[in-house]
Amino acid sequence: MEKQKRYEALTKERYQDIYRLAYWLCKDQHIAEDLAQETFLKAWRFFDNLNDPNAEKPWLITILRRENARRFDRKQFDFVDIDECAIQTKTYPGSDHDMAQDWLQKQMMILKPKYREPLLLSLVAGLNHDEIAQALRLNHNTVATRLFRARNQLIAQQGNH
């Protein structure tokens, strides 16, 4: 019963962080819910492997990242003739904050994955350098360097905007 109580506490404490990161990765509420659920199901299966309570968040993020990658491995894409599709652009009124958020997300997607992932884990998941290093299996200095470079690239892109 001790395992179940620890797991329930982990789920209660970390679910919102995992869901928020899942949503950022897929931009779809239902897929994000599925990813979060799969993450916690897998966490339950391997909960005995988690020995360090300080490693909970990076451990869950690692599971989430793998589940998200599996989503693309399983997905079968339908090919459509581009000429048969009518492309329509819609604009929606939004606040300055929404526009800034959209701009930031687009700019982050332009970054190379080696810079985007640590920045995403820092900004969206709220991980510190050591937790990011653990989640990505990098050393602390590499994480610090990549975060520095990612932020500088975003600042440079903002200047060009």
Automatic annotation (TrEMBL):
GO MF entry, a single one: DNA binding
Key words of the record: DNA-binding, Sigma factor, Transcription, Transcription regulation
Entry keyword Transcription: yes
Residues annotated as domain RNA polymerase sigma-70 region: 13-76
Pfam entry (one): Sigma70_r4_2
Start and end residues of each RNA polymerase sigma factor 70 region 4 type domain: 102-154
InterPro entries xref list: RNA_pol_sigma-70-like (IPR039425), RNA_pol_sigma-70_dom (IPR014284), RNA_pol_sigma70_ECF_CS (IPR000838), RNA_pol_sigma70_r2 (IPR007627), RNA_pol_sigma70_r4_t2 (IPR013249), RNA_pol_sigma_r2 (IPR013325), RNA_pol_sigma_r3/r4-like (IPR013324), WH-like_DNA-bd_sf (IPR036388)
One of the protein's GO biological processes: DNA-templated transcription initiation
The keyword DNA-binding belongs to this UniProt entry's keyword annotation: yes
PANTHER family for this protein: RNA POLYMERASE ECF-TYPE SIGMA FACTO, RNA POLYMERASE SIGMA FACTOR
Protein family membership: Belongs to the sigma-70 factor family. ECF subfamily.
Protein name per Swiss-Prot or TrEMBL: RNA polymerase sigma factor
